Amino acid sequence: MSKWIWCVGCIVGITMLVGCQNNAEEQLEGIGKSWSDRLLIEKEFYGQILHEIESDEMDLSYLKGIATGHKVFITQDHLYEAVNDLMEENIEQSYDESVAVKVVQTLREIEDTSFVIANYMQETKGQALYGNKQFINSLSYLIEAYVDGKGETIASNDLTLMNIVKHPEEIMSTHSSTDIVNRLNSILNNLTILSQNLSVEIEQNLQPVRGKFSYIDELSEDHQKLYNQFQTDHNVNHMKDFSPEEIVLAYFHSAAIHDVEAIYALLYDNGDLPTYEMFQQQYEEKGLSRKDFDLVMRYRYYDSIELQENEYENSVNVVLSVSLETNKDSVIFELKEEQNVWKMNLSHLLKES
Length: 353
What we know:
Layout (H helix, E strand, L loop, with lengths): L1 H19 L3 H30 L6 H15 L6 H14 L2 H27 L3 H4 L2 H16 L12 H6 L1 H7 L2 H34 L10 H13 L10 H13 L3 H6 L10 H10 L2 H11 L5 E6 L5 E10 L2 E12 L2 E4 L2 H6 L1
Antiparallel strand pairs: 1-2, 2-3, 3-4
Helix pairs in contact: 1-2, 1-3, 2-3, 2-4, 2-7, 3-5, 4-5, 5-10, 7-10, 12-15
């Protein structure tokens, strides 16, 4: 319980940091500290998992409790909006572009992977995964890479992620950009190992319990046939009678099976949509594929999908929501009508990437 209280204390501290500091330099310095605190929480989360699964009598209920507390913590996204913006600014000021981009990518991957781990721990017993040596080794590596370093004592110039975000000047003075990028790539590789092992276990353990999930299960039989035709030729004219909600479900299903051509066909063209070849490259290289995967995983077994009016012409919002006990998480998509077909307006994501 005390560990959960410590996490909540960090949330409060970050909120006070964003709200109270006015001096830009102090704020950036404080943001580095808040992210280092965030990495300490990740270390604690991984350490609790390792300690429990390596004990003589693993307590699955205790692991589920750890996951519940951690998931509540990381779903407080509104607390991190200002932090993320300022952190990116601080990183870009401290490092050259290749390093800055990799640091920001790594921080985002950590948060996404952490959510998937916590979600998995809540929904399955996970005995097979907890005995997986790859999974255990990656958790151990990340504890060292985030915070601990390899020496007997933790130093501010150790090449750890916490030092990279908290002490950029010392890191740059003692390590080359190549070394920093290699360290970040190793962290990303181990996060990928965690995700891959989770995907296998989710497929094997969750589906028999809850039934095979598909985002297109809610479509009528006629619309499922039309969607199957769309999958074959990617002609959106098959989707003319689809509601905005059904288009969102079709998009999610396309993302789940990694049908990039279908995803592209469902995108609204506001005049600057790239060619399919350019989009295909951006989708993989700029992290859009990973973002879609995270959404697909997060909103499996969604509770509701609802239409919401907005102030724009030929435009609506669709809200997809999932809940766990008293916690609710929602994502909102804007759809616009194009040649009598509702399409996903994700132009802002393409520009951000």
